[in-house]
Amino acid sequence: MTGNYTLMMVKPDAVRNGNAEAIFQEIKKHGFEIVAQKKLQLSRAEAEAFYVVHKERPFYGELVDFMISGPIFAAVLKKENAVPEWRTLMGKTDPAEADEGTIRKMFATSKGENAVHGSDSNDNALNEIFFFFSSREIVAQSGIVQLNDIIGRQPE
Ligand code: GDP
Predict the structure, then answer these.
(1) Cα(7) to centroid of ligand 1, in Å?
(2) What confidence tens digit (pLDDT) does each residue in 59-94 have?
(3) Is the per-residue pLDDT at 145 higher than 70?
(4) What domains does the chain contain, in order, with CATH numbers?
(5) Cα–Cα distance between 10 and 12 in angstroms, integer?
(6) Exactly one of 117, 122, 126, 128 is catalytic; which is it?
(7) 63: Cβ below 6 Å to ligand 1?
(8) Where would I find the H helices in the chain?
(9) pTM, to two decimals
(10) How far apart are CA 22 and CA 44, in angstroms?
(11) In the chain, what is the straight-line distance between the N-terminal and C-terminal CA atoms, in Å?
């Protein structure tokens, strides 16, 4: 993993409000390449597993209920320093604290329903990419060279 990839989600609030397309436009406008993407509905077990690090937090139940309240988009983004670059564009967790021009400032409604997700480290990015996408899906959407780059494998 080179540090050039991250996993993002468009959360159910933003899909419901019809903002998914505008969010992907912003992402591309800021120089990210979309390596793979899909629309899906998380099951309760999947949402619980994805957010297991927050299991002891008071908002865990609310977060899981929200994340299964409708379809989401998951996407693999590519850019140099993708994790911090995407977190900067995404903005602070609470839209009331997010900077002008960030996705959450533009599209989030509350600290819980905040439009987008982004991995918080390169290790988590790798785990989260393969939580949502199989190697086959990445090859189908972007090719073997791209898959090798994500996992840091030298070409044969
Ligand atoms: P992030 O990295 O900015 O997404 O923030 P965190 O890792 O701290 O939290 C993960 C997600 O949990 C956030 O994006 C929110 O959707 C949700 N969350 C965080 N804090 C709260 C809260 O106080 N209440 C509710 N309902 N959800 C929260």
Answers:
(1) 16
(2) 999 999 999 999 999 999 999 999 999 999 999 999
(3) yes
(4) 5-151 (3.30.70.141)
(5) 7
(6) 117
(7) yes
(8) 12-16, 20-29, 44-50, 60-67, 82-90, 103-107, 122-132, 135-142, 144-151
(9) 0.97
(10) 27
(11) 17
